Amino acid sequence: MSALQELGTTWRWGSPPTLFTISHTPPKPTVPAVLAGSVGGHTPLGLLEHWIDRCRRHRGIVHTQRDLGVNAVAISFEQDGQHVAYAMDRAGVQYLALGRQHASEWHLTSGTDVLAATLLPDLFTERLAELVWRLAGPPPPAPGSRIRDMWPTAGLLDLDEDELHERFAVPPPTEGHTRLVAVASIDGLAAVHGSSTALTSTGDQRVYRLIKRDADLLLLGAATIRAERYGQTILSAPEVARRRANGLPPYPAVAVVTRSLDLDLTGPLFRRGTGRHTPPRPILIVPAAAATDGNTAVAEHAEILVAGEHDVDLTRAVRLLQDRGHRRIVCEGGPSLAGQMAQADLLDEICLTIAPQVLAVAGPRITADSATQPASGEWQLSRSLLDEMGNVFLRYARPS
Ligand SMILES: NC(=O)c1ccc[n+]([C@@H]2O[C@H](COP(=O)([O-])OP(=O)(O)OC[C@H]3O[C@@H](n4cnc5c(N)ncnc54)[C@H](OP(=O)(O)O)[C@@H]3O)[C@@H](O)[C@H]2O)c1
């Protein structure tokens, strides 16, 4: 039964604003649990904020609700003589029920289009989304992605999204923090036939998404944008709420290192979203020599950042990005960019997935640089995890 249907069955006509959560995870009660009644004098928005405040101050509430298997948070109230019931589930899908108290007409709408049908302010949706991630559990992992701890402690239980996120979380940095994420086969290949698609898996995508969700900025080489037809990550409303609460903008910025500016401006990276939150315009990091060519078409679609003369000076580029407040940078490669980042000692962390494949063909490793001297510096394993498909997730950091 959908949250909306559940919502319908528990609709309490004429009642004052009531915040309640809906649970249908056996063996807990199969009827939605009304977990909070009205609080005198609160507007619907005030009621949401009241509960956010309680969650922030009493972590126990969060755990209790999660133990109950809460799947959605809903709020009901009256607006302009109309009853409104508005719910959001763990995946950020929104449900709206509208009705009049004495009319026989009962109008229901559901799905993500519901926002068009209501005059609810953006702030209302943001607050509901925040309450969803604070009170309800994270979305269930996709099938084929049961991930467990391997080291420093071996785990017997599959990790849910929040537990997995905690394994890869970085504390809010006062200074910059740059991590490389990459996937390789057992025999060290980072791409086959010009793409890493064959190496990725549901588990890898799951970890990757969580790492990206904590980023201020995603940094890529232009060849990866071209090879993978790279587009902006779509985040659900609870994920956006979580980012905001962690002091991050709704979406990570994307910065592309390029000399040629040879990028498809109609491609997915440059498409503007139509939703409530749209990702910011991509940043193109170019050397001065490339910036002088008068690329007005590019400038319409992206912001241009100049670092270096003939090649992008990556040390300078990272500093410029950090000065703009992009402190948590996730470098997604490809190998040429990652190699230069490693050579310039710009990486604080490497999150590497080893996919259980031997490809035995020619291809790049996760770093490829023309330097003849090996990069210096030690690395320490800080975490390793394993999924049921045999993917190993390794997190390396510089010794502290
Ligand atoms: N396994 C993985 O984790 C992973 C991750 C990402 C990508 N990949 C794969 O790796 C391949 C692409 O990697 P790649 O090494 O060929 O390329 P890349 O690192 O993605 O991009 C290289 C391009 O970035 C620009 N660039 C890099 N350094 C520059 C500098 N210092 N100054 C100016 N421009 C600079 C240049 O762009 P212009 O040519 O526009 O000047 C250069 O051609 C793809 O097959 C992709 O699927 C694998």
TrEMBL record:
Give yes or no: UniProt keyword NADP. Answer: yes
**Sorted alphabetically, which InterPro entries does this protein's record hold?**
DHFR-like_dom_sf, RibDG_C, Riboflavin_Biosynth_HTPR
The biological pathway it contributes to is: Cofactor biosynthesis; riboflavin biosynthesis
Question: Which keywords fit this entry according to its UniProt record?
Answer: NADP, Oxidoreductase
Q: Where is the Bacterial bifunctional deaminase-reductase C-terminal domain?
A: 181-372
Where are the membrane-spanning stretches? Answer: none
The protein's name: Bacterial bifunctional deaminase-reductase C-terminal domain-containing protein
